[in-house]
Specification:
Largest sheet: 2 strands, antiparallel
Strand order of the largest sheet: 1-2
Number of helices: 20
Oligomer: single chain
Structural class: mainly alpha
Radius of gyration: 22 Å
Number of domains: 1
Strand content: under 5%
Helix content: over 70%
């Protein structure tokens, strides 16, 4: 007869679950309020969501580094804390954008904010565990919520975008499960630290290496879909085009931060074990992604699709840092997305300001380049801000994204991958063309008659978020050293 297992609350260390529980409880509270009192103004839900995110942020700040909890499936290390902070900051920047024109009615649904908080909880579970099952639960929780958020946008192509994203997400989930199943079959565990211990003693067996190769390919394909890496990127421009501009900007940042952390844990484990061809596979995928996405961005007619391909290229840039698997490179991942977050979300918010219910300048596209012709004459401050964001995305010093790019390139040089740093530099030069193309349209071309009536969706919350993004983009040089030091310390403290 089996003896009962005694589990105490102290041993569960439930404080490691507190950030996720706060987000889930917040979503449930919003749904309950809607059930009790229908028709409340959306500003209440916006303020509640921001408050819940602030409380969540505080709970993350109060966590101790390198702790396990809840039967050891939760792992709170430096990677977990830094990534959760970035996810919550980006979310707090995104939510006020709901206080916009009544034309876009998805923000009037309380369910939007509840699903948003459930999605945050899913991302937090992803980055706070090295248990493959819990990571999968986090992926599916966040993905299912995000599919619905996209579909809530009141346009036909939003439904199309949601279905495409759902299909690609289902494929990614199936590949992730197959890769995880192979890991479990090899080692008898789904805990990455135990998997590493078992593989360490069997790494020289040919059959084991073959199984690792197959499992790595499955996982790499899964992450390829989630991060829109080549050749699994084809869904991204269409989904970004169908989603609302703020949500597209959010999608280009937060889900990728969560997936990068999972990739860092899994592929970092393989590389630490000396499986060099995993590094080679990732480097090939990263170089192809950043290069081909830039080529595609060059020929886009729509600014939103250009920014979608730009985001794919940036993901390839950062994926190369994952392959380096050094503390400096991993620091570069968080630094890059911490800076990219403000700039890219600011650029997509500028598109949101210029949003029309019906297409004015083009039969298909919402934001063709022609729409921005002569913007400096119609909306001088808007043209200056958008130009600033484009210069930052292009990696022009001293603006924010430049520091992320140069840091990752220096990490590549330090690791002996000078050729990779050269390819990164060349890709940045290519990207500068299509970013500067928009600046040329805004500052050097004459506005059409339609342009004079487009810019109507300017509210104080939107201007506040854009102002924060501008300040962060311009002033990043002044707080770069303490930011790098903090992230470097947190990443160095990981490895529990």
């Amino acid at each position: 007869m089996l003896e009962p297992i005694n589990v105490s609350l102290a041993s569960l260390n439930l404080v490691t679950l507190s950030p996720m529980l706060i987000a889930i409880a917040g979503g449930l509270i919003i749904l309950i309020i809607d059930l009790l009192k229908d028709g409340l103004h959306k500003s209440l839900y916006v303020m509640m969501t921001i408050l819940i995110l602030f409380i969540d942020f505080g709970s993350v700040m109060g966590l101790n580094v390198n702790e396990r909890g809840f039967f050891d499936v939760m792992l709170i290390d430096g990677l977990s804390i830094v990534s959760q902070l970035l996810i919550l900051i980006a979310s707090m920047l995104f939510i006020p954008l709901a206080l916009t024109s009544k034309r876009f009615h998805e923000y009037s649904y309380p369910e939007f904010f509840a699903l948003f908080l459930f999605m945050i909880a899913g991302f937090q579970f992803m980055v706070s565990s090295d248990n493959l099952i819990l990571i999968f639960v986090g992926i599916e929780t966040s993905s299912l919520s995000l599919y619905t958020l996209i579909a809530l946008h009141n346009r036909d192509n939003a439904i199309e975008a949601s279905i495409k994203y759902f299909t690609m997400g289902a494929l990614a989930a199936s590949f992730f499960v197959m890769g995880s199943a192979i890991i479990y079959a090899l080692t008898g565990s789904v805990e990455l630290y135990q998997v590493a211990d078992v593989l360490q003693g069997r790494i020289d067996e040919p059959a084991v290496m073959g199984a690792i190769l197959v499992g790595s390919i499955f996982l790499l394909v899964a992450f390829g879909f989630k991060l829109s890496l080549f050749p699994f990127h084809t869904w991204a421009p269409d989904v970004y085009e169908g989603a609302s501009a703020p949500l597209a900007g959010y999608m280009s940042i937060v889900p990728k931060i969560a997936v990068f952390v999972v990739a860092m844990r899994i592929f970092g484990m393989y590389i630490d074990l000396g499986i060099e061809w995993v590094r080679i596979l990732i480097l090939v995928l990263a170089v192809l992604t950043m290069t081909l996405a830039n080529m595609m961005a060059l020929v886009q007619q729509d600014v939103k699709r250009m920014l979608a391909y730009s985001s794919i290229s940036h993901a390839g840039f950062v994926m190369a840092a994952i392959a380096l698997d050094t503390t400096k490179a991993n620091t570069g991942v968080f630094l890059y997305y911490g800076l990219f977050m403000f700039t890219n979300l600011g650029a997509f918010t500028m598109l949101w300001i210029s949003r029309h219910k019906n297409n004015v300048h083009h039969d298909r596209f919402d934001h063709p380049y022609e729409k921005f012709a002569g913007l400096v004459q119609v909306m001088p401050m808007g043209a200056a801000v958008m130009g600033l964001f484009m210069l930052s995305l292009a990696g022009i010093p001293p603006f924010s994204v430049f520091w992320g790019k140069i840091y990752i390139m220096s990490a590549a040089v330090d690791s002996g991958y000078i050729w990779l740093a050269i390819i990164m530099g060349l890709n940045s030069a290519i990207a500068a063309y299509y970013y500067l193309k928009l600046i040329v349209y805004m500052f050097l071309m004459a506005p059409s008659n339609d342009n004079k009536t487009v810019y109507y969706n300017i509210t104080k919350p939107l201007m506040t978020i854009i102002g924060i993004a501008v300040v962060a983009t311009v002033s990043s040089v002044f707080f770069m050293q303490p930011l790098i030091s903090y992230i470097f310390y947190m990443v160095s403290a990981s490895g529990y």
